Amino acid sequence: MILSSRMIKKLLFSAILLPLLSACSPEPAAELKVANRSIQSASLARDGSHAVIGSTYQGGSFWQINPGERLYDWDHGDDTTRLILHSAISSDGGWAITADHQTLVLWNTSSGKSVAYWRISSEIRAMALGRFGNIALLGLADGRAVLYDVRHGGTFGTFSHNTPVNAVALSDDLSLALTGSDANTAHLWDTQSGLQLQQRDFDDPIQQVALSPNGKRAFVAARYNRVELFDTSSGELEWQLPLGHERIIRGISISTARFSDDGDYLLTGRPDGRVQLWDITTQQQLYHWQMPKLSAWQPSPTSILDVSFTADANRYRAISGNGFIYTLSY
Fold first, then answer.
1. Cα 128 to chain center, whole Å?
2. Which residues fall within 8 angstroms of residue 87, CB to CB, at 6 or more apart?
3. Which has the closest alpha carbon to 45: 291, 254, 307?
4. pLDDT 10s digits, 43-92
5. pLDDT of residue 19
6. For 137-196, what is each residue's pLDDT tens digit?
7. Domain CATH for 47
8. What range does the domain containing 246 cover?
């Protein structure tokens, strides 16, 4: 068996250093300012190399994180009040999608040009973009999740819910869709047949969902409730993340989550500015980082909007609502 660099690190260090690592909360290794004030929305490329930023005061933009360059300005027309509320980057990195309340724009990340522009009949609550930028999964306020043809318009399929759909995710091969709604339920769907494969019930609305790239693992976080990882084939619970009941009922849950390429590790970000790295196989927190406050009078760090792994097994990235992209290492 060929061991990945992360697995080698885990075997060498976790038994000895895990208590020390878990106790640490180092400062970010580097930071990049991408907005003067707050960020309304943000998305990182899977490899952490680029980001889409929806700034409250400076509009939309596409960034190359190293060396730190604003490549393109991306806005939905001349109306500066139309904030970019949601965004996503395709897993291959070649395409990005941005949305305000009811309009979508597909962008080519190489040229910076818009490719398609569409208006949706319902308010967009969440979205994910498939590989090569052909299909987007949209979570809508009218209780639908739709597979949308972002090149030509129209839908490939609709997954009905009774309440607004707040969170969506797609597997890399587009065969699986994961949705979460205000009805306190998460649903796993077969995108070809449109059939529901699994349903998981919670006590509160679903806040975040994620699928591993190969579609074998699913992540679901419910607001003020629990955070679960489960096997998409069997539906069996693999792990309930140990966030602590007191923290969860105070609203310290998960604001964003992403699996590693092999699906064995998980990065999560929280509303209190904390980023955590989890080893799913051993069911342990490997490390955590606390994002800094910008000033002494600021009551707490702002929420983490997105996280990503990078090509370097020792480095990770996180976008905070305070206008910074942080590079994290250990």
1. 9
2. 41, 42, 43, 52, 54, 60, 96, 97, 98, 99
3. 307
4. 999 999 999 999 988 889 999 999 999 999 998 876 555 789 999 999 99
5. 39
6. 999 999 999 999 999 999 999 999 999 999 999 999 999 999 999 999 999 999 999 999
7. 2.130.10.10
8. 5-329
Residue 276 in contact with residue 285, Cβ under 8 Å?
yes
Q: Counting beta carbons within 10 angstroms of the beta carbon of residue 77, is it exposed (0 to 12), middle (13 to 18) or buried (19 or more)?
A: exposed
What's the structural domain count of the chain?
1
Tokens matching residue 220: 């679901």
Above 60 in pLDDT, residue 297?
yes
Instruction: State how far the Cα of 189 lies from the Cα of 326, in Å rounded to an integer.
Output: 34
In whole angstroms, give the CA distance from residue 303 to residue 318: 10
CB of 62 closer than 8 Å to CB of 49: no
Largest CA distance in the chain: 57
